[in-house]
Specification:
Strand order of the largest sheet: 1-2-3
Distance between the termini: 68 Å
Order of helices and strands: HEEEHHHHHHHHH
Strand content: 5-15%
Structural class: mainly alpha
Radius of gyration: 23 Å
Helix content: 55-70%
Length: 262
Amino acid sequence: MNNDLTSMLDEWPFEPGQINVRIIEGVDGLPRLQVRLDLGIIQMHVNGRPDGQRPFGFPSLLDYFEARLDEGSVPPDESDEPDPESDGEPISPVTLTPEDCKSLRDEALQYYHRYIALLVLEDYEGVVRDTTRNLRVLDLCAQYAADDTDQTALEQFRAYIIMMRARALASHALQSEEPKAALLAIDDGIEALRKCFEQQNREGDFENSSEVQLLRSMRGALIPQLPVSQKAELRQRLAEAIAQENYELAAILRDELKMLKE
């Protein structure tokens, strides 16, 4: 068998300045996602783990560790109770080792490469699936990592993943000609970003963050597409925001009302 990839690379030239992605059929009849790089091609499974592996018989390492932790975890308020099988010693909480966390990060990178490629192909459901999954990785490491560094190593990416998920949800809704659902997805994403920045003690970075700016830009482009019948609903939401003294949301809703055409 000739292992030279030249003919394959020549058949699909690399185009600088854009993400080159395509779907092909594998020898097993299942779809494969390919990304053309300047020096080669990355190939991934469209479903399941991108490299097609099933670690320990599970769909992914994340699923494996979640199952293992579910079996051995102890509620925080009970973790100091004595273990009847260990001479009265406290039950040890289940944790993820640094090696476990590194393996989870490496796996999450595979899913990152895939959801970026799926976004290019406008497979928004796939993007939502993979971004939701990677947020589970962040939550798992934050809760169970034994090392403080591993608890926070991926937190720098949380805002980006939240934004990508909201963007995909909104885009999928627009594909289905549901602008109202798209607007709600964007609003939910912005609120999730607000909570993210608050939890990271970065409230001052919220307004100018690239993630928030992108979602607000989508929002601004979407407002004129809303049916006029939704103007009454916006007025109701404005009244509720004022009643709850949520003046920032009220200001946003006022802007939306101005953008809607009579």
